[in-house]
Amino acid sequence: MLQIPFFSRPICLFCMLDCKIDVLLGKMEIDQAIRGSDDMRLKTKYNNAIYVIQRALALYSIEEVALSFNGGKDSTVLLHLLRAGYFLHKGEQSCSNGGLTSFPLRTIYFESPSAFPEINTFTYDAASRYGLQLDIIRSDFKSGLENLFKANPIRAIFLGVRIGDPTAVGQEQFSPSSPGWPPFMRVNPILDWSYRDVWAFLLTCKVQYCSLYDQGYTSIGSIHDTTPNSLLCISDSSGHKEKFKPAYLLSDGRSERAGRVKKCSPISQHSPVAEDGLDDQESQVKRMRTGSAIAVGDEILSGAVQDELGPLLCRKLRSIGWSVSQTTVVRNDIDSVAEEVERQKSSNDLIFIYGGVGPLHSDVTSAGVAKAFGVRLAPDEEFEEYLRHVIGKHFTGDRNEMALLPEGITELLHHENLSVPLIKCQNVVLLTATNPTELEKEWECLVDFTKSVLILMEPYESKSLTTHLSDVEIAQSLSKLCMQYPDLNIVCHRKSRAGPLVISFEGKEEARIESAAQALCKKFQDGVFSET
Ligand SMILES: Cc1cc2nc3c(=O)[nH]c(=O)nc-3n(C[C@H](O)[C@H](O)[C@H](O)COP(=O)(O)O)c2cc1C
Ligand SMILES: Nc1ncnc2c1ncn2[C@@H]1O[C@H](COP(=O)(O)OP(=O)(O)OP(=O)(O)O)[C@@H](O)[C@H]1O
Ligand SMILES: [Mg+2]
C-alpha cells in the first residue's frame, strides 16, 4: 500500500493560510447555497444527509472516520456535504479550540491503473483545494482497508453509495461492512438521493466536478467499462466525432448507468405466471388467466365502509374472460399486505390491490408489496415527476410524498387519461381508485395496455335458471350435471332460505351451456325452471 499524505508535500505558508480560509468559507457557502435555494426537495435531502453526517461525527471522533473519495459525482457531493456537516458539527460544539480552521478528514482513494486520467487529476486537485489528507491506495479494496486499519484507528467510512447502485442493495444509511470484509461501519449519507438530486446539489453549490461529466459520462467506472451515455449523444450528420451533452441534462436518472458495460442481467419485470413474451401465441390464447383482488382497508373490516371495488373488479375480469380466484380484505398494516400478496402471487396471473395507496400513515400498500417480493422501497424519480405536477409547489421531496416504490420490480404504466401512472410490481397492479367511477377509468386504461398487462381472453358466457324446487329435490341432479360438464362452472345461490334458487351456468362455449341447461330441465317436469 502506497500512502501519499498531501500535507507531506511542501506548501508555502501563505498558500496554506489561503487554503484554510477558502476551506472554511467554502463550508459555509455550501450550507448557505442550499438554504438560499427554493428547491424544497434538495433542502430535505441536504438536511437528511447532514443529519446522518452529524450523527456519525457524534458517534465517532474525526480520527475514527474516513471519506472514501474517487472523484466521481457521488463522492464529490459527499465531500461537500462532509465539509458542511463538519463545519456545522464543530459549530454546535464549542468553537473556542479553533477547530474550525481545518478539515482534518482522512480521505482514501483506491487508485487503479484503469482509472480515467481525468478522474485522477480531479481527485488530486480536489484533495489539494480542500486540504484533504489523502491516502492513495493501490491494492484491492479489502487488503487496502486491512492495512489502513492497522495503521489508523478508523471505525467508520463515508461512502457516496446511492440506492440504485448495484452495491447499494441491502444497505442502510449505517451498514456494517459485509461478512468477509474488515470490520467497520459504512456510512451512506446520500443513500436516498436520486440522480437529479446529485446534479441539483452540484449545480446549486456551484462546485467543481470531474470534466468527464461535461462530456456525456453519467456514471464512471474504469476506462474498460465506461463510455459516454448514448442518450446524451448529439446527432451529427456531418460524420464528425460524436458529441455529447453534459451529464446533468440526462432527464431519466434510471439510465444513469447506460454508459457502463453490464456485468449482470437486470431483474425480470415479468410475472412468474404470465411470461407472455415467451409463450407461443396458441398456448397464450388457450391458457386460462386468473386474477385476484386485495382490498386494503381497516374501514372495510370495521364495517364502516362497504367495498365496492372488489365486486366491480370481478365483473371486469370476467368480462375479458379471466377467472377470479379470490377477493380478500386486509388491514392497513405492512405485514398483513405482505402476507396476502406473498400467498397469492404465484397462483395468479395478476393481483389487483387497492386502498392504502397515498402519503398517509395508513398508506402502507406499496411497503407491503415490497416486503412480499423481498425488496425495499426506493425513491422513483419518474413517479416523483408526476407527483410534482399533482402536488405542485407544496412538493418537498419528503418521505411522505409517496414517491417511494418497490425497488427493482416497479413498472409505471402511463396512459394519457391518467394524471399519475398506474404502478405494476411484477404481477401486482396497484390501483389508486377509491370509487367505482375511478376504477372504471383505470380499468379502461389497463385494457388499453392489453398486450403488456391484461391479455384479453374469450369472454365468459352465462345463463341462469330459477326454480322453487327444494335443495333436496335438486341436489343430486346438479351433482351429476357438474360431473358431466366439467368445463362449466355451475353456481347456485338463493335469494332467501325459502327460495327461489338461482342456478347459473358459466363457460366459454354457448352450446355447452345450452346443453347443460337442457339436460337439467329434462330431469324435471316442464315449467319447473324459468330463465332469468
Ligand atoms: C471504502 C469501501 C468499502 C467497501 N465496503 C464493502 C463492503 O463492506 N462489502 C462489499 O461487498 N463491498 C464493499 N466495497 C466494494 C463496493 O461495494 C464496490 O464493489 C466497489 O465500490 C466497486 O464498485 P464498482 O464495481 O461499481 O466500481 C467497499 C468499497 C470501498 C471503496
Ligand atoms: N476507487 C475508489 N476509491 C475510493 N472510493 C471509492 C472508489 N470506488 C468507489 N468508491 C466509493 O463508492 C462510492 C460509490 O461509487 P460510484 O461509482 O457509485 O459513485 P461515484 O464514483 O461517486 O459516481 P459515479 O456514479 O458517477 O461513478 C463512491 O462515491 C465512493 O465513496
Ligand atoms: Mg464511480
TrEMBL record:
GO terms for biological process: FAD biosynthetic process. The keyword Nucleotide-binding applies. Its EC number is 2.7.7.2. Pathway: Cofactor biosynthesis; FAD biosynthesis; FAD from FMN: step 1/1. It holds the Pfam family MoCF_biosynth. GO terms for molecular function: ATP binding; FMN adenylyltransferase activity. It catalyses: FMN + ATP + H(+) = FAD + diphosphate. Signal peptide: none annotated. This is FAD synthase. It is an enzyme of class 2 (transferase).
